[in-house]
Design a protein that fits this description.
This protein is α/β, with parallel strands linked by helices. It is 44% helix and 15% strand. It folds into three domains: 7-53, Transferase, Pyrimidine Nucleoside Phosphorylase, Chain C (Transferase, Pyrimidine Nucleoside Phosphorylase, Chain A, domain 3, Up-down Bundle); 83-326, Nucleoside phosphorylase/phosphoribosyltransferase catalytic domain (Pyrimidine Nucleoside Phosphorylase, Chain A, domain 2), CATH 3.40.1030; 330-419, Pyrimidine nucleoside phosphorylase-like, C-terminal domain (Aldehyde Oxidoreductase, domain 3).
Length: 434
């Protein structure tokens, strides 16, 4: 590309709070993807964006440039409505494992490209890979073949779809620039809009267990992504959900797979199912399929949603026997219960700290190359608003390492705030933006 533009000029321009043009952003992303702009210069640019921000036009240009760095999927041969769901991530969030097969059992085609866990939030890919043999690295050809055959596929980001995002995300993580609305919005939407979707449902989380703690920031992120979808002519809806409590009971990769299977058997925790059904109802409405939550419940009761999950496991090389035999999943045999020290009501839980505690016992990663122990995790028995008696279990820690087990148990005990008076009721589904 013959141009007088330089990365240094664009870094300086954004550092000083000026707006970048479409051409300037395209140049920066294109040259970085090719390797002609080094990591240290793009890191400086990301930090400039973190502090100075981007307006909606710049954010849209950034998303488009990241999307154009790779290829778009062509799913025009698929007759069913093509919809996806994306979550901004939270502690115990295994909704994708339940909602994906549930939506597919209703006749929706779900091309789900998911991510790995990083920091205090878990990743769908890590959870799926705790199933022996399960493959998340399918080629685009395999991806499309499975979609045509069973209507759903759950894989990781390939080098062909938005490769600029893949490179930039790794940099954002190690340069403390993750928590930026323009960067988050461009990252998520560049991948999702490359999927040739008819519609997209976003689960945007806020609270202590989410990346976006503040509700106002989470809402701004949701509005930004919905507007990007609208401008790209893809129906997009965002549901804002509270993550001050961990979601569900189980936290940890194989434990969350077990809870997802239980949910598909009709035995899911109330909060997990409330979020799943809220998002699922939006997907059905978007696909113009009648039935709403009653239809979703019927697909679980009939066993069709569970059978769809079995098909996913079989098609992607996993052992489908895990659905009936949880001993085939790697779950630590040693555990210790975390006991309440006094009577009262749970007023607060440091959900972020619980997520980070999972990392310290081996169930998460701080760097992309870190190995994960899929067998460890927690069960959360008491949440905000619940009454607890002295000596009653608050949680349970699972780990193969005795020292880590007891350290995590003490840590989690200190993450609970128990008071005499009742705690205020919390609304799990705060707002829907469309």
């Amino acid at each position: 590309m013959k141009t007088s533009l330089t990365a240094l000029d664009l870094i300086r321009k954004k550092r000083d709070g000026n707006k970048l043009s479409k051409t300037e952003i395209e140049y920066l992303i294109s040259e970085y993807t090719k390797g002609d702009i080094p990591d240290y210069q793009l890191s400086a640019f990301l930090m400039a964006v973190f502090f100075q921000g981007m307006d909606f036009e710049e954010t849209t240009y950034l998303m488009q440039a990241m999307k154009r760095s790779g290829q778009d999927l062509d799913l025009s041969d698929i007759r069913d409505p093509v919809l996806d769901k994306h979550s901004t991530g939270g502690v115990g969030d295994k909704v994708s494992l339940v909602l994906g097969p549930l939506a597919a059992s209703c006749g929706i085609c779900v091309p789900m490209i998911s991510g790995r866990g990083l920091g205090h939030t878990g990743g769908t890919l890590d959870k799926l890979e705790s199933i022996p043999g399960f493959r998340t690295d399918l080629s685009i050809k395999e991806f499309k073949r499975q979609l045509e055959k069973i209507g759903i596929v759950m894989i990781g980001q390939t080098g062909q779809i938005a490769p600029a995002d893949k490179k930039m995300y790794a940099l954002r993580d190690v340069t403390a620039t993750v928590d930026s609305i323009p960067l988050i919005a461009a990252s998520i939407m560049s991948k999702k809009l490359a999927e040739d979707l008819d519609g997209l449902v976003l689960d945007v989380k806020f609270g202590k267990g989410a990346f976006m703690r503040e509700y106002k920031k989470a809402k701004l992120l949701a509005q930004t992504m919905v507007q990007i979808g609208k401008r790209s002519k893809v129906k997009t809806i965002a549901v804002l959900t509270d993550m001050d409590n961990p979601l569900g009971v189980n936290i940890g990769n194989s434990l969350e797979v077990i809870e997802a299977i239980e949910a598909l058997k009709g035995k899911g925790p109330e909060d997990l199912m409330e979020v799943t059904f809220a998002l699922g109802a939006q997907m059905l409405r978007m696909a113009k399929i009648r039935g709403g939550i009653k239809m979703l419940e019927q697909k679980i009761t009939s066993g069709q949603a569970l059978d769809k999950f079995r098909q996913i496991i079989e098609s992607q090389g996993g052992d489908p026997r895990v659905i009936e035999d949880y001993t085939r999943l790697p779950v630590a045999k040693k555990s210790v219960k975390v006991i309440a020290r006094k009577n009262g009501y749970i007023h607060d839980i440091d959900t972020y700290a619980i997520g980070m505690s999972l990392v310290t016992i081996g169930g998460g990663r701080l760097k992309k190359e870190d190995n994960i122990d899929p067998s460890c995790g927690f069960k959360i028995y008491k949440k905000i608003g619940d009454h607890v008696s002295k000596g009653e279990p608050l949680a349970e820690v699972f780990s193969s390492h005795v020292r880590r087990l007891h350290t995590a148990g003490t840590d989690i005990q200190n993450m609970y705030t128990i008071k005499r008076g009742r705690a205020r009721c919390r609304t799990l589904i705060r707002e829907i933006i469309s």
